[in-house]
Design a protein that fits this description.
heterodimer; A: 165 residues; Aconitase, domain 4; B: 416 residues; alpha/beta; five-stranded parallel sheet; 18 strands; 31% helix
């Protein structure tokens, strides 16, 4: 899989209340959630972005609540991937489970708002076309790759358990 | 092995496990609430599952937006109720429901050595009884409801050793705010926080729940305290029988050992917008406040209400402040009534809310407006957490919150 898009840059410790405020969690509708994505810290984010754009952030992205609505809202508004120096653990799990590509990149600070990135998930590379620089990233451990290959956690579960029920 | 490694090994059919290893573990309890269960139910149904692995081990606690704040949240709870009836899973209706992390231990559903997962980040609270307990998302919970299992990477452990005598008004909340201030909001990311030392051994259960509850605010996978006599007494009170009290080995491996002398710690306050912005209360003295919230899964237990009432007794709330008291469960509410605490609060001019997470996450029952400032015994002070994106939340223990409600500004309890 390959994705290409422009960067929206955020800082450290972007928490789940920043991504989707709790007052909007009275629905599970992806479109409704998407319309409020990042609103707390960047009003009208969902209207400003183009489909395929990429979020780049600092450390501990997605800290706070376990709300899966956070990655759902990011995916729902058309963001193709999130690149961060590090991720909070529940957010990382949730993203893998719902199929939002997330990449840990220690050099995330070098990427700036508006840069054009091309991510190749098979090769494990991020090309910054605006800066002419390419980064290699660590792919997920084998166990997680198996879940991703199966198309997310529920398909993996379905393949292993539901048939026997 | 550490206590965390032992519990994970036991639940994944292994003699031993090491940090970094991926295992599939059997779960003893699966939890979801009115915000997270609906997504889990959707995934459960989409997968075509026909039954849950064990209805006795699944519990739905509608506590966040209940009593339902609007039509949409009423629809969400309806979905929980219908699913619970169909699959016979545990469900707590209004009148029985309380804040999940205060309710489940009280109900005797959390035991030492258990492996517990919940679609709520503060599920780590149950480490206080010596369980491995961690928050996950809705899809993980859907999968656990079907299979009775979850995948997990065994976390490395950090050992926190607390020594010394606690100062007046210093409780579990102050110890954990101080600790998060020391290591940062990602200071324990992916790792287990094991709380040990003579101070912890002498700490009452409610304070232990508060400490483990906020392990997630340092990014931890779980927080845990080895069970001891205090745990055993508590478990007896809530009617839990247990076989043995599981402990870490003498030669267990810790990635880091952090020693904290608690005699240096004064009541803590965390300033907006991170729980790690913690300092001695005096550093924030004179910050004017509009609202006080005493409650939540962090500090809504009976001893928290006793502490707040001990400060408020004979005083009245500052005329420019509103003070909201939220007993975390029905049982705590009733106990507070019996002890006359509710009377103290009402006389002082507080309002009493039914058990709910409500204002902690800006849901309802005390949302704040633009430019307003709150001090709360809750766990997060992120931007807009209690309401308007331009509002401010300070975190503290119950005594500091109560004293601040009386003075109309953040202050040390001794000032009252």
């Amino acid at each position: 899989m390959k994705v290409k898009g422009n960067v929206w840059k955020f800082g450290d410790n972007i928490n789940t209340d920043d991504i989707i405020a709790a007052r909007y969690l009275n629905t599970t509708d992806e479109k409704q959630l998407a319309s409020h994505c990042m609103e707390t810290i960047m009003p009208d984010f969902s209207k400003k972005i183009k489909k395929g754009d990429i979020i780049v952030a600092g450390g501990n992205f997605g800290c706070g609540s376990s709300r899966e609505h956070a990655p759902v809202s990011i995916k729902g508004c058309g963001i193709s991937a999130v690149v961060a120096k590090s991720f909070a653990r529940i957010f990382l799990r949730n993203s893998i489970n719902i199929g939002l590509p997330v990449i840990e990149l220690p050099e995330a600070d070098e990427i700036e708002e508006g840069d054009e990135l091309e991510i190749d998930f098979e090769e494990g590379t991020i090309k910054n076309n605006s800066k002419g620089k390419t980064y290699e990233f660590n792919r997920y451990p084998e166990f997680l790759q198996e879940i991703i290959r199966n198309g997310g956690l529920m398909k993996w579960v379905k393949a292993r358990y539901i048939k026997s029920q | 092995m550490t206590i965390t490694e032992k519990i994970i090994a036991r639940h994944s059919g292994k003699e031993s496990v090491i940090p970094g290893e991926f295992v599939e573990a059997s779960v003893d309890l699966v939890l979801a609430n009115d915000i997270t269960a609906p997504l889990a139910i959707e995934e459960f149904e989409k997968a075509g599952a026909k039954e849950v692995f064990d209805p006795e081990k699944i519990v739905f606690v509608p506590d966040h937006f209940t009593p339902c704040k609007d039509i949409q949240s009423a629809e969400l709870v309806k979905r929980l109720r219908e699913f619970a009836r169909k699959y016979k899973v545990r469900f707590y209706e209004i009148g029985k429901v309380g804040i999940e992390h205060a309710l489940l231990p009280e109900e005797g559903l959390t035991r030492p050595g258990d492996f517990i997962v919940g679609a709520d980040s503060h599920t780590c609270t149950y480490g206080a009884v010596g369980a491995f307990s961690t928050g996950m998302g809705s899809t993980d919970i859907a999968s656990a409801m079907i299979t009775g299992k979850v995948w997990i990477k065994v976390p490395a452990s950090i050992k926190f050793v607390y020594k010394g005598k606690r100062n007046k008004y210093v409780g579990g909340k102050d110890l954990i705010l101080y600790t998060i201030g020391k290591i940062g909001v990602d200071g324990a990311n992916y790792r287990s926080m094991e709380f040990t030392g003579e101070t912890i051994r002498n700490l009452p259960m409610d304070d232990r729940f508060t400490i483990c509850n906020m392990a997630i605010e340092a990014g931890a996978k779980n927080g845990i305290i080895e069970p001891d006599d205090i745990t055993a007494m508590y478990l007896e009170e809530v009617g839990v029988s247990f076989e043995s009290l599981i402990r870490s080995d003498e030669d267990a491996y810790y990635e880091e050992v952090i020693e904290i002398d608690v005699s240096d710690i004064m009541p803590q306050v965390s300033a907006p917008h991170l729980p790690s912005n913690s300092k001695n209360v005096d550093e924030y003295a004179d910050v004017k406040i509009d609202q006080v919230v005493i409650g939540s899964c962090t500090n809504g237990r009976i001893s928290d209400l006793r502490r707040a009432a001990s400060i408020m007794n004979g005083h009245t709330i500052h005329p420019e402040v509103r003070c909201i008291i939220i007993p975390a469960t029905q049982r705590i509410y009733q106990q507070a009534l019996k002890e006359g605490l509710i009377d103290v609060f009402l006389t002082a001019g507080c309002v009493i809310s039914p058990p709910t997470c409500g204002p902690c996450l800006g849901g309802h029952m005390g949302v704040i407006g633009k430019g307003e400032v709150a001090i709360a015994t809750t766990n997060r002070n992120f931007i807009g957490r209690m309401g308007h994106p331009e509002s401010y939340v300070y975190l503290s223990n119950p005594e500091v919150a109560a004293a601040s409600a009386i003075k109309g500004k953040i202050c040390h309890p001794d000032e009252v």
